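Service request form, structural biology core

Requester: graduate student, group of Dr. S.
Request type: structure prediction, single chain
Budget code: on file
Notes: please return the result as structure tokens.

Sequence provided:
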Amino acid sequence: MTVLTDLEDLAKQLDGLPFFATIGYFDGVHLGHRALAEQTALQASEHGYASVIITLDHHPQEVLRPDLPPPDCLMSLQNKLRILGQLPGDAILLLRFTRELAAETPEQFLRPLIEIGLKGLVLGYDNRFGRREPHVTLRQFDDRIRSQGVSVHRISRVFVGDEGVSSTAIRACIRSGDFEKAARMLGRPYSFVGDVVSGSQIGRTLSYPTANIRPIDPHLVMPEDGIFVSEVKVGEYVYPAMAYYGCRPTIAPDLEHQLEAFLFGYSGSLYGRQVEIAFRSFLRQDIAFATREELAQQLVRDEAATKAYFADHALVLR
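Core staff response, request fulfilled:
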């Protein structure tokens, strides 16, 4: 799917064809977001129109509240656009989020889209856009959109079990190490791309040489300290792995957290390369061992547990 950053380019891409659209930040591109894209494409197809996904380049809080720390996110912009591009649709419109854009009324926001052919919107069960107007009910908001000649279709909330799918719920799962539940809500394991950087090479002395992975986006949500079943994609190949995230309390306590992964079946150097790591399951918490020998013995048990996991679970990164 083509990613466009300008309304003029979108108009050229659509070549006069009317369109339906969905709008959101889409952090994580979870099952709820996928349902929006699918329903938008379905509604558009029924009318013979195109379908467009409209998203933002920054989280609104980054722009509106620069005094606060940047919010944790589930994916980098690059990864978000990649996953959105795999969904049904004809184009992605990536908007630069500014204070000026945030101050626009829904009518002001929609006007240029209507001028190039917007006919309908597919929105989440509670989604709004435009400047904050807490006194306006959701029904009033939808009526204002319809008054502009744009239809509104809202989809119901998507549930996994008895819990509603949301980016907030997924972030909570990842922080607590419940990667299986996060994966069910995302529709895929939680993963991100990182650069392999040089480390202290302590893992080599324990017979577990690890790749030190630095996420390309420093604001990604991370789990609590511990050992995890994971998998790592290097180029076109995917390897089962066990990963560590923490401050290495047994070896050399560090002020900064490190993410390291030992790839089963891989040989060679990864320094300077980009890899994708996916978290599959929580193995154990990070603890300080009395000796290196005790740590080495535990790593052997961690390896056995990781291999047992992959005896029953396939690799999923593509």
